[in-house]
């Protein structure tokens, strides 16, 4: 099964890398040290430091594995270097308006860096898929859980190079 590329901005990749480095370089070694100390205290079956430490170590290792896979699949795309700035592509900040003239500003980012509350929408979200390739003035229909909505693209912006 071919995995689709994990598009991500340079800032988003830096966040993933920083979390990986923090877990691998700081938290995991400190936890291993605590587990070794707790194991030396005798009976492990009732040793809270040991039991919790092992559980937390499994969580960290699982997260490190996930981060490693995501970074390996990552295709870093710098939106500041977009060639066609007249259309909505990865990294674009788009102002859209619905039928009631309610405006929203969205930035299309990688799925790993999406945060809807901050206006960062994952590249594969339904609204992002509908907006791909749109130009100012285009109308796009989006099928959302609340029903179908139509949006007009008001403005498109990309970060400065």
From TrEMBL:
GO molecular function: DNA binding; RNA polymerase binding; translation elongation factor activity
GO BP, sorted A to Z: DNA-templated transcription elongation; regulation of DNA-templated transcription elongation
Pfam annotation, one family: GreA_GreB_N
InterPro entries in alphabetical order: GreA/GreB_C_sf, Tscrpt_elong_fac_GreA/B, Tscrpt_elong_fac_GreA/B_C, Tscrpt_elong_fac_GreA/B_fam, Tscrpt_elong_fac_GreA/B_N, Tscrpt_elong_fac_GreA/B_N_sf, Tscrpt_elong_fac_GreB
Domain Transcription elongation factor GreA/GreB C-terminal: 86-158
Record-annotated Transcription elongation factor GreA/GreB N-terminal domain positions: 6-76
Source species, domain of life: Bacteria
DNA-binding listed as a keyword: yes
Keyword list, A-Z: DNA-binding, Elongation factor, Protein biosynthesis, Transcription, Transcription regulation
HAMAP family noted in UniProt: GreA_GreB, GreB
Role summary: Necessary for efficient RNA polymerase transcription elongation past template-encoded arresting sites. The arresting sites in DNA have the property of trapping a certain fraction of elongating RNA polymerases that pass through, resulting in locked ternary complexes. Cleavage of the nascent transcript by cleavage factors such as GreA or GreB allows the resumption of elongation from the new 3'terminus. GreB releases sequences of up to 9 nucleotides in length.
Family: Belongs to the GreA/GreB family. GreB subfamily.
Protein name: Transcription elongation factor GreB
Organism phylogeny: Bacteria, Pseudomonadati, Pseudomonadota, Alphaproteobacteria, Sphingomonadales
């Amino acid at each position: 099964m071919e995995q689709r590329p994990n598009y991500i901005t340079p800032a988003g990749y830096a966040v993933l890398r920083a979390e990986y480095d923090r877990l691998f370089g700081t938290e995991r070694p400190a936890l291993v040290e605590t587990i070794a100390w707790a194991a030396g205290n005798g009976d492990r079956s009732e040793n809270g430091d040991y039991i919790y430490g092992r559980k937390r170590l499994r969580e960290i290792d699982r997260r490190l594995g996930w981060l490693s896979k995501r970074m390996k699949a990552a295709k870093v795309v710098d939106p500041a270097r977009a060639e066609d700035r007249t259309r909505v592509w990865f990294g674009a900040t788009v102002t859209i308006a619905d039928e009631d003239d309610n405006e929203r500003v969205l930035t299309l980012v990688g799925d790993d860096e999406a945060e809807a509350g901050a206006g960062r929408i994952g590249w594969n979200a339904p609204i992002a898929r509908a907006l791909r390739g749109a130009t100012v003035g285009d109308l796009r229909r989006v099928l959302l859980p609340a029903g179908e909505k139509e949006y007009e693209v008001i403005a498109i912006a990309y970060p400065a190079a």
